[in-house]
Amino acid sequence: MALNYRWDYVKFLFDSKHKTNIQNTEIFFFFPFYHIGGAERVHIDILKVFKEFNPICFITEKSKDHFKEEFENLATIIHLRKLSKKKFKAFFLKKIAKQINEKQNPIIFGCNSLLFYDLIPYLDKHVKIVDLIHAFSDNESWAAEIYSLPYVSRINKRVVLGAKTKNDFINLYQNKNINSDLNDNIVIINNKVSIPDSYDKQFNDNLVVLFVGRDSGEKRPGIFIEIARKMLEINKELKFKLIGDFSNFKKDNLLENVEFVDEIKEKEVLIQHYKNGDVIMITSRREGLPMVILEGMAYGMVPMSTNVGEIPSLINEQNNNGILIDNNQEDSKIVDDFVTELIALNSNKTKLSELSKNAYNSIKEVYSEEEYVRKYKELFFN
Prior knowledge:
Protein name: Glycosyltransferase involved in cell wall bisynthesis
Keywords: Transferase
InterPro entries: Glyco_trans_1 (IPR001296)
Oligomer: single chain
Distance between the termini: 29 Å
Pfam families: Glycos_transf_1 (PF00534)
Domain Glycosyl transferase family: 204-360
Number of domains: 2
Number of helices: 16
CATH architecture of the largest domain: 3-Layer(aba) Sandwich
Strand order of the largest sheet: 3-2-1-4-5-6-7
Helix content: 40-55%
């Protein structure tokens, strides 16, 4: 159920039906969006874990409706996007906090929402506070890891996706002279991935390379296009697919070996692209641990990625399950390195098969749904 955003936070405070929803839960989520994105799919998975507890989920920014129905099926949705810009924000935050404080064992969980951190000073000590940081940003003041610093001592647990982000936090705390005891509050929980029961990958005669994401500076789809452009001069048989909203990008980058696929909401359709592709490519300048790389590997795709974020903790020589490209070089050199690796992989189907099987096994061993559910329930209720 969702209410009109203009009145959501008013009804949250005064509407009797809404108060009934509040009375039936002690779990409150704060997420910015329900549009298409890897983070939003992670947030859906977290909501699924706690659906039986009738959670309330605050959406704190203006959002497209791509995953709106999925969110509404898992929680009572309350839109607060107007609240973050109103001069009465403190007044309403106090009122929202009062409703939460009245619960016996309330838990609030936030990710990518600055309003979540704005609420913390108004919460009583018995409220359990948990946040999730997908990855560090570029030290902008609005980045969650920076914006949250005044409230670190009040955050009971901080979820990260891997050892790199945990170490980033430890170094940040040290640089900001924050008590090192708070390092113990940082916990690693891997994302959940739908994994086929068995490995069954069929490869194309020439590689089909996928880029699944959005048109943004950090994702660098332009590098993907330049790789495809160079491959036209070497081997026209390799095919490249960009999956996502690239409407503003497409008109200037039409190549005969590149197919543009619109945003995909249905998971089954995206899975079919994974099954039909050979290489899942990440060209980002920064990342956490992208869902698309995990999902592609689960269906036997070979990951080929810049060595950013948590990706090297999963894809490395020891695991022999993919190919990493050095991100600390000029874009033109990054393009050349990707092209070189694609040419080599396309001509060595034995290596392609070996990397593919190892990629599948890497995901199956670590990213099970059962472990994911266990860790999140333990995080909330222990």
